[in-house]
UniProtKB/TrEMBL annotation:
Residues 13-121 form the SnoaL-like domain. SUPFAM superfamilies: NTF2-like (SSF54427). Gene3D superfamilies: 3.10.450.50. This is Nuclear transport factor 2 family protein. It comes from the Bacteria.
Length: 147
């Protein structure tokens, strides 16, 4: 992934993601403000999905990504669009990961909305198909997405 925008907020988010994808946790967490809000799809969380909910600061972000890695084997993560203005940045695309518990694939369109101040993430909200995720993780029946 390469930074292609002159938006400082977008550049910060892309740099953060590059560190995450490379496993450079310390460098990624240095870009997270102490009171940053990280939201994994559902702000209210899910009792059986540890990386959904609201997390605070670098420690919370670390818990979010650790729980993600424990549940899903990362696969494809395609960024098809990105934009930023002022302190806001957004990216979107398509992903495909595999559940470590069930072996099922999880495919979804996704979007990420962030707010950046002074070179640090203050808000990070990742959107994805939560029904498809629940089926892939085995916490909801396949009929949940059959409609």
């Amino acid at each position: 992934m390469t930074t292609t925008s002159s938006s400082p907020a977008l550049q910060t988010v892309e740099r953060f993601l590059e560190h995450i994808f490379r496993g450079e946790t310390a460098q990624a967490m240095a870009l997270v403000a102490p009171q940053a809000a990280f939201v994994g799809a559902r702000a209210e969380g899910h009792p059986r999905i540890a990386f959904q909910g609201r997390f605070t600061g670098p420690e919370g972000a670390q818990r979010f990504f650790t729980a993600f890695g424990e549940a899903l084997e990362p696969g494809e993560f395609e960024i098809t669009g990105r934009f930023g203005e002022g302190e806001h940045a957004a990216l979107y695309g398509r992903l495909r990961h595999r559940s470590r518990a069930t072996g099922r694939d999880f495919a979804s369109d996704w979007a990420l909305v962030c707010r950046v101040r002074d070179g640090q993430l203050h808000f990070y909200h990742f959107y994805e198909d939560t029904a498809a995720l629940e089926v892939a993780l085995g916490v909801a029946p396949e009929a949940a997405i059959a409609a």
